[in-house]
């Protein structure tokens, strides 16, 4: 097939902004394309060589492409650069110089799609020493045989500037018309695309076997399923109403979404944008290999930064340190992660995407071997708005963003690639930022684990209520302690240890060790939030809820100068909460 055919269609598409016309041009192109080439033509129209998840970048630096254009056109690099400054588009510059050259030389071998594709592929994959020269000669080679218009589009494709603006859905429409018997076939093509993320493969199947070939399309390991997304509402009542009165609410963990594909020892991890991120998270891949029981499975989980010693979740920002490509080993140690699994889409040959969520959730419970670092997203099945609100507050306080409330109806399938009302997120539209540190009294402690076995994992801290002369808990703090602190604190607390909760301490939490209120520490957190767990200021803001410090951290300052009664008061915490409220966006 001549590449010129493709280039001509690109030109037509560039000259229209109407989606229907674009579709018609594509239909014509697809009809003229031999079936064995259709996948490649589809990728090319998207400015790609492979589906995104393969991670093979087509990009060639403009600097190198300039050298290839100069060579093919028999010009000096300087001349090309000068013209490029005027046009701002190397594709156009290449076209212009090759037009001039045409007048003096004979046109050589006509370019085929196969040859263009193979050459671009070789350029994309060339690496190591000598690859720069190799890329330039490969490109100069096809440019020498290219018609000027072809050169324009080859250059734009290679430098990542093709940008024809053809949406995936337009390609699916065109395929439905060209090979599926009409536009009505679109949903079948769309589903196949949504569960494979591979337009080229869908094109090939429909071209070769017609729409029937896609009717039984199944998910497969190694091809990411386009993620299901959630709509948003801002009250428990609205959410329950939308979900038919009852739902399963899950913690909305604040990390990175990961779709894990396991096939025996092999594990791939895909990001929400379907990039293969296995190399960035070898530890998460290992967790999947070890704790997802079936031989082969596709699961979805939120990958969250955690403190292995306290089991607490860390703020989202910490996970961003894992986004690097180098020194991964070190990042794994500094920023360990846990997985909170929230869906299962495939198990041992069985596609589960069309099963209702309650069925998938039951499967999920069977296939996860629960450990500290791999858990099922915390959930609650409820029809009670009050209960939902309390669960929401608990989620926030524990470091989550809110809840994802999911339909448990018969139609609650996994809607790959779409944002619908089967999942509804419930996040806050306000945030209370904590700018000042507070002084809190130690009233209890929890045993540590991992490296902290034998010492405290976290301290239970309280604010003082002078009216009632009580100490009301406001956080469980396990961060900010140095090794030295961890050795010192148990010794410091020992004289104050008591057998039961102190009479002046108000706590809903059961600490492992209790203390009389004596020792004061300085603590800062990310914000103050409503809490169903802590007792500080219960009822002051909302009935039945107290206030808590989210992501609390010891500042390193002991306050022996303060008595417990000099701690920050409950009233001050309430005021801090009220004065620091600010609206936040999505
Ligand atoms: P948003 O990015 O605000 O649209 O929220 C949706 C995201 O929440 C998903 O893409 C997941 O990464 C994340 N998430 C966290 N916990 C869950 C959960 N239990 N169920 C579904 N999504 C979750």
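^ structure tokens above, recovered residues below v
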């Amino acid at each position: 097939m001549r590449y010129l055919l493709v280039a001509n269609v690109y030109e037509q598409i560039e000259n229209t902004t109407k989606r229907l016309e674009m579709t018609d041009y594509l239909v014509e192109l697809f009809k003229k394309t031999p079936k064995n080439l259709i996948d490649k033509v589809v990728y090319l129209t998207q400015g790609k060589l492979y589906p995104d998840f393969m991670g093979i970048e087509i990009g060639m630096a403009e600097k190198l492409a300039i050298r290839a254009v100069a060579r093919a056109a028999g010009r000096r690099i300087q001349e090309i650069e000068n013209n490029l400054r005027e046009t701002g588009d190397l594709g156009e510059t290449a076209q212009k110089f090759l037009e001039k050259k045409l007048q003096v030389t004979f046109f050589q071998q006509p370019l085929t799609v196969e040859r263009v594709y193979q050459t671009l592929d070789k350029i994309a994959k060339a690496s190591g020493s000598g690859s720069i020269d190799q890329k330039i000669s490969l490109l100069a080679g096809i440019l020498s045989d290219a018609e000027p218009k072809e050169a324009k589009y080859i250059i734009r494709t290679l430098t990542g500037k093709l940008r024809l603006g053809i949406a995936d859905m337009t390609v699916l429409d065109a395929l439905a018309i060209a090979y599926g018997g009409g536009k009505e076939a679109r949903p079948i093509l769309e589903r196949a695309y949504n569960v494979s993320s591979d337009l080229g493969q869908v094109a090939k199947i429909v071209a070769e076997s017609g729409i029937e070939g896609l009717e039984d399309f199944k998910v497969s390991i190694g091809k990411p399923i386009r993620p299901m997304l959630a709509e948003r509402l801002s009250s428990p009542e609205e959410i329950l109403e939308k979900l038919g009165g009852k739902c399963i609410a899950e913690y909305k963990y604040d990390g990175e979404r990961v779709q894990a594909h396991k096939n025996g020892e092999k594990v791939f991890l895909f990001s929400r944008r379907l990039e293969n991120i296995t190399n960035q998270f070898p530890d998460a891949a290992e967790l999947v290999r070890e704790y997802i029981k079936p031989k082969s499975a596709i699961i979805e989980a939120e990958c969250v930064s955690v403190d292995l010693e306290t089991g607490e979740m860390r703020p989202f920002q910490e996970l961003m340190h894992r986004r690097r490509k180098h020194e991964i080993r070190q990042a794994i140690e500094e920023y360990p992660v846990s997985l909170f699994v929230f869906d299962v889409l495939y198990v041992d040959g069985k596609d589960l995407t069309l099963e209702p969520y309650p069925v998938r959730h039951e499967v999920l419970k069977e296939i996860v071997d629960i450990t500290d670092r791999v858990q099922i997203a915390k959930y609650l099945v409820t029809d009670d708005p009050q209960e939902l609100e309390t669960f929401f507050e608990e989620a926030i306080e524990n470091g989550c963003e809110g809840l994802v409330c999911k339909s448990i109806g018969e139609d609650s399938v996994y809607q790959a690639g779409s944002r619908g009302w089967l999942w509804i997120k419930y996040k806050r539209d306000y945030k209370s930022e904590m700018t000042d540190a507070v002084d809190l009294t130690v009233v209890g402690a929890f045993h540590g684990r991992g490296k902290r076995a034998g010492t405290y994992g976290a301290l239970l801290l309280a604010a003082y209520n002078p009216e009632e002369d009580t100490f009301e808990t406001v956080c469980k703090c396990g961060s900010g302690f140095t090794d030295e602190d961890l050795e010192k604190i148990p010794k410091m607390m020992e004289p104050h240890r008591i057998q039961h909760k102190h009479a002046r301490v108000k706590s809903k939490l059961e600490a492992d060790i209790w203390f009389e209120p004596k020792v004061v520490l300085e603590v800062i957190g990310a914000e103050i939030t409503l809490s169903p767990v802590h007792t500080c200021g219960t009822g002051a803001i909302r009935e039945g809820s107290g206030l808590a410090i989210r992501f609390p951290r010891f500042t390193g300052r002991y306050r022996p100068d303060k008595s417990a009664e000099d701690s920050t008061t409950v009233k001050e915490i309430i005021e801090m909460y009220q004065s620091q409220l600010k609206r936040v966006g999505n």
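The first strand starts at residue 229 and ends at 232.
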